[in-house]
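Chapter review: from sequence to fold.
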Amino acid sequence: MNAKKIFLLVCFILCLHCTANAQDNVVENWWDNNMLIAEGYGFPKENAENPRRAQILARRAAMMDAYRQLAEQAKGIHITAESTIGSKILTGDIVEGKVDAVVKGAQILSEEFDEYNNCKVVMCVPVYGVTDSVANVAFKSVDKKDFPPPSGSKLVTGRYTGLIIDCGETDLKPVLTPVIRSANNIPIYSYNNLDHDKVVSKGMVSYAYREPTVENIPLNPSGEKSLPLSYTAIIKKKLLLLTTPNPESSRSRAGNNPLVIKATGMSDENSCPIISADDADRILSENQASHFLDDGAVVLTGNSIGGSMVAKSYRVGGLRA
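The token string follows.
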């Protein structure tokens, strides 16, 4: 490769990068929109027969670059705090060829060429979905277990549509299989409690950034450990589009009336929230009436997720995914 080609390609990439920053940023975190997105760059060979041939070669190279990045992203997804898809491949629990097949089925979101026939493509792979998704490879079928019964009697309203766990200042570590535990270390929500096909289709939880300007929220007058209604309304507004598994839906994953609970701590490298025993009983009691846990209508929120304070988005079909 001659120096001129290298110089032109670097200029092309820098130009496109500046343009992207001025418009919409490409998603770098799989939990933002439940998809993997990568930008691939390619340039034609010097001996390309004609401009059309040059574009074909550049496009092919750009797609290969995007495939490589998507495979790296997929293998870096944490199933638990300690295990990734990549580590499961090394142990033989996941077949690498199946991951590669999912990546090869990536959708092209956009492609463009500069005047020198250098190419940039943006490609995506769904994290969740019944077929052709990362989750379809990562999740194994297990014997489903019932949710634990509440240890005490609670007044049940039966009106909650979902659950939001506010993890506050903690830097949440996104994983495919988080566990919600009570203070006495009883798992009240885990992969073993859910239907395999539902988890593959839309995951166990959604992650959403907590409103950073809302601080020092007091408990409500009744003394309940859940957050007050005013804060619930703020959270619902914040999560309306960020947590829905379908970007075109008008409802959030946690529904129109979520139960909002404040975590008392975190475990498993900040991937799994811990809640009080009283709140655990409340959640389990309400779930017996509304079954929102069964439906995976759960959102984890915090000021920081995966080390990032600001959610990024990518425009797909005129909508923010």
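Two observations follow directly from the output. The chain has a mean pLDDT of 79. The chain is about 30% helix and 20% strand.
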